[in-house]
Amino acid sequence: MVEKLLDILAIFFEKYFIPSIIAVVLAFITYYKAPADNELLVKFSIKGFFSFVFCLWFLLIVLIIWSIKKFWNSIKNKKYHDALIKENNYKTINSFWIKVDQLSRDDYDLLLEFVNNENKPITITSIPDSYHCLLKSNWIHKTEIESPKKVLISIDHNKNISLNSGYKIIPAKYQYVLVDEIYKLSKYSLDNYGKIGHIKR
After folding, report:
1. Largest CA distance in the chain
2. Which residues constitute the domain of residue 26?
3. Same domain, 105 and 174
């Protein structure tokens, strides 16, 4: 029985050696500072008082150490989590930049216009060839706001309007915005890196 108790104490002091030493020192200081007529000291005797004070100091020290470790681990975990998010964000941004680099100058300027105007709708009647890549891509959400109209005419010299048996066709009007994911990527890229793409245009 005594051997088992000694083994338990040996394991205990091996695990909590430093907190135990600090608790013993603080218990001695507490005993030294305590007045001779202290109620606990009178009631429990010197050994009981010392044991009681030792346990209080020991629990307090263990609690403080546990709190410090927990706080430090939370900081390390947050740093690791932030680094992981930053790495994943950069991979996503880098993949996005590769596609942006392939845009024509006009398409890039249009993408920048969407970002600068906070992705407010842009109304376009007909799509110029230079915008073919962006406005017809899956980066864009298109909404028809005015259907095409067929109007009777006699003569029309407007080259942008096609003629059909004395009628002119007024093309439909569409509003375009970036899909939310592309807008957020573009905005994040511009705010954090000062550019959209590997090369700032």
Report:
1. 119
2. 2-76
3. yes
